[in-house]
Amino acid sequence: MADKAIAAQKAPYKAELTEGKHYFWCACGRSAKQPFCDGSHKGTGIEPMRFTAQKSGDAWLCGCKATGNAPMCDGTHKAL
Question: pTM score, two decimals?
């Protein structure tokens, strides 16, 4: 059984992305390199989410790990 994701912070992370580049968004909340994966999920049963940037520029990636639009922030942190 998978552990529960923990909120890394109750706000999104601003990240500069490059169009066409692949990223691994931390879904477990344990990474020291938020909002990206550093392998800290090992043993939790939670896997990072691989995504490809659709455009270059700033993006707001979820920090609370409860978004309904992973990896992007959808404002869910405001209700936590």
Answer: 0.94
